[in-house]
User: What shape does this take?
Amino acid sequence: MDWDVFRFWASLISVGIITSAQAAYPWVERRAGESLARITAVAGGIAVGYVALYLLPKIGDYTAALIANQPELPELLQYRLYLFFLAGLVLYFFVDRAGAAGRVLPAWLHGGAFAVYSFATGYVLASVPRPGYFPYILAGGALGLHFIGICHQLRAWHTIAFDRCIRWLLGVAVLAGWAAGSLETFSKAVVATAVAFLGGGILVNVLREEWPEKGPGRTVPFLLGIGLFVLLVVIIRSFTGSRT
Assistant: This one.
C-alpha cells in the first residue's frame, strides 16, 4: 500500500477514536459513575507517558534539526520549540485558573480554546508519520482517554452548552486538524510548533484534571496508566525499531 494512503487511513482511525470519545462523553459519564475518577487517573498516566516518551523526544528531534540547519541563530531561537511548549502550558494554565477561581469563562471562549487544542491534536496525528497501524491506534487511544478528562471539566463548567454544542465543536476541530495535516497544508516548522504546543497543553491539563489526588484510589490507576503506556511503547519499538 502506498505510504500516503496508509497514513491517511491509519490516522483517520486514530482521530475517529478521539472524536467518538468527545461526542459520546455525556453517555460515558453516566455509564462510568463512580469509576470515572479511576478512568481519568489511568488516562492521566497514559497522557504523561505520551508526552514524556513521544512528544518530548519529537521536540528534541526537531530542535536538533533546527540547530543543524540554522546554526547562526541565537540559542534562544534555536530552542524556540520549547518556548511553544511553554506557551501551550501557560495558555491552558490560565484557562484552567479562570475556572478554578470561580471566574468561569464564557462557554464560547472555553469551547474555542479547547477547539484549538483539538485542532492541534488532529493535525499532529495526521502529519507526524508512525511505523505501522498500531502506533496510530495507541496515540488515538491515549489522546481519546485524555480528552475524557478534558470533557469532564468542560461539562462541569458548561453542562448545557457542552451537551448541545461544545462536544461537537471539539470533534469537528479534531477532524479539521486531521484534514489540514493530511493535505500537508502547513510546513514542517508548523508541524513542529503544533507538537510543542500540544505537549505543553497536555501536560497542564493532566496536572489539573487527571493528576491523582491523595490516596490509593487514583494513585494506583495513574501509575498503571504510565506503566501500560511504557510497556506498549517498548513492545512497538522492539518490533519496528522506530519511535512511535
Residues 3-240 form one domain.
